[in-house]
Design a protein that fits this description.
The chain is α+β, with helices and mostly antiparallel strands and about 160 residues long. It is built from two helices and eleven strands. Keywords: Biotin, Fatty acid biosynthesis, Fatty acid metabolism, Lipid biosynthesis, Lipid metabolism.
Length: about 160
Amino acid sequence: MDSKELLNLIRFVAKAGVSEVKYKTKDFEINIKTPLAGSEAVSYVPQPVAYQAPAAAPVAAPAATATETKAESTSDDSKYITIKSPMIGTFYRKPSPDKDVFVNVGSEVKNDTVVCVIEAMKLFNQIEAEVSGKIVKILVDDASPVEYDQPLFLVDPS
């Protein structure tokens, strides 16, 4: 099951209003649970099965570097408000390839300012800042996949 199929399944479960779905194939098993039937918040817990495809060996050095970098930047970024992704999808800084970006570092934003779009299942969802301030950092590259609750922007509210 690829990521698009998984996303479609999660959306289907959320819209169907059921609280739990178990999906199992010969190579894959997944349980999708919603906290309340019909709500948008969906969590999923993949269950391992006996057969697993071989994977490349993980590289430990970059992960350690990322952790160290995050620890250093946390103290600097604590005074900023984070704009997070409300969904899984693909992050875009522009409304279309031939248009300008919504915001840049240094741009002033208000509660209703559109800062990006996230594509999910061929739908482009406009994401609003929901805070007032100045964009100080863009945390995601254009056309990158994003997860639910992943930080996208840092905003200085002062």
